[in-house]
Amino acid sequence: MRPLHVTGPIHRLRGLVVSNVWLLDGGRGDRWLVDTGHPIERLTLLAGLRRTGFSPRELSGVLITHRHCDHAGNAGFLRREFGVPILAHVSDAAVLAGRATKARLQARSGDRLAFLLAQIENLTTTSTPVDRELEGGDVVAGLEVHHAPGHTAGSVLYRHAGTASLLSGDTLLAAVPPLTLTQGMCLPHPDYSDDRDAALAALRAFHAAGHAYRNLLSGHGRPILGDARERALALIAGA
Fold it and tell me: Is domain 4-101+118-237 given the CATH code 3.40.50.1950 in the classification?
């Protein structure tokens, strides 16, 4: 089963449960992944890549939304096995490359399952060399890079202006944590964020700047198409 076409060149790899991996397929020489999924789903990721009809070696690169293991967990593998370049914001790149110590997630909500999953992240080492360190204002693969620190120091929003789509990682969710099985737009979870207040401030600043989008393609949950920005504004206003 081929990847699910979402809009324009953007597809979602099928079969992944833990988190989403997005494919931007602009044709030979312009094929990118946004995020790589969790290591426990590596075989599913590889199966999804095989169904694209081209080799992983043809990928132009992987763009990381943030350093957590369920998003960057297969980045080092793809780089090592297939030579895929890795791109991440400079702040998370320092952690992934081992030049900086990651912040430990703290129990804030009282949710025991969230606490357990946060501890798994705390105990997991996600590492990879980063071939290009991104800054807010960069443009790569047709995506604008908007730094949105808070969930992690190097979290980013990628805006695809051509399709009015926002690839948001975990800074703005399309499923309810901690298990993200229930669909619905959500703000970052406090137990999974370095600084949830900073993440909310980054979201407010991004929307106040007037960046337009209609579609939300999050790190978790199904795509929200057509009215995503209006829904996000209402959610943020109530926070």
Answer: no
